[in-house]
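Changelog note: in this version the structure field was regenerated for every chain. One regenerated record is shown below for reference.
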Amino acid sequence: MSGPSPTPAHEPTRQRVLRAARQAVRVLAVELGTPTEPGTPLFGSVQNPWLRRLPYLVAFGFAVSLLPTTITILSHDYGLGGGLAGALATAQTAPLLLAVTRPLQAWWVIFAADILCALALTGADGVEGRAWPWPPMVIVGYLALMVALSLRERSRTLIAVWLTTGVAGILFEPRTPDRSDGTWVLLFVLTGVVLMMGATLRERGDAQRKLIEQETISEAERARRTLLEERTRIARELHDVVAHHMSVITVQADSAPYRLSGLPREAEEEFGSIAATARESLAEMRRLLGVLRSEETERHGGPEKAPQPGIGMLPKLVEGTVRAGVPVELSLPEDRVPLEPAVDLSAYRIVQEALANVVRHAPGARTRVSVTTAADGSRLTVLVVNSPPPAPSAPLETAGTGHGLIGMRERVRLVDGSLDTGPLPDGGFRVAAQLPLAPPPAPAASLAPKDSGSV
């Protein structure tokens, strides 16, 4: 029994070629039928209002200048009828106004009008010896459309437009009239150049825009990280202050039964419970400090053992600043002012940060540090004012880390105070902080009894 006749060797190859051609046509159709951001104007995201209007002005200028020119050339030079020339010229130029918001849809209209114009010119009397299938005004309008198209559409769409333009020119080549100039090669090359240049400019603009967005995000993240680091440092410093008070409570509660005779058993148990709660609080604070402690602190051997400073150590701080080359005058209250540890520490750190900024950014500038109390004893005023630096000197740092002012604001906010900083008219700088001497009143909500079911 004989089998089926063998398939010719070239049949599979032909099928593969046809399949690839159909796939290519399908891809071209998808790319040419899927516009990018339809309805969004070119330069719509630009802040400058004149630049946003520029595409409309350019498109209007091309449409107004090309429309009468195209009608005149098609009717007088190529010999088309006036009505047909007007219709074709309108279809070839008016869609340029649409190209500002929908360039791919405008291309469909203009390209179809150009094809019809080329077909109409084949039977015209004046086409011999003239440019065909694309007259000069058609080339100008088409290239203007390519600029708008390249600034909006993706690369695959631009390649599809370019190839379609070339295929249309190739198909017209056998129908070229006698002694006429075949301009399809010229339009094909110029279209490719314009599309490539426009796509390059668009991609460069997109890259710059993404870079600016990334820099903005990085700057925000850097500011947030600086704020968190400063708050962590303040929390580590305040740990010593709070730990001291908790230690005092523990010792007093543990020693109460021995210092006070005749205490009831219920009182002794209450003191024992207070001491146990205080010890648990200290343990929790140490664990919290371990979380907040930075790697740099641990590399230096753990937390500092020295007590936290206050305004009583400002003379020593000023002395070190004077040795660094900054003349500083210090003014402190004559009578010792009892300060809360948090206020005392905040006042010292504010002066320390302000003097450090003077050393870094205005070396040699005369500086005055003043710590005063209000007449009613309600607040402490810390003022650091420096004059302009001497002319020959240059700042040691042109860009700071951002921790100085942020740290001052956080310390002032911690004690419910206020901070005012800024340059002076003569070129100096001023830091003024108002710190309350009495603790702020507790909110009314915190004084209400807690729900018995809360933990």
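Spot check on this record: The first strand starts at residue 131 and ends at 132. The chain has a mean pLDDT of 80.
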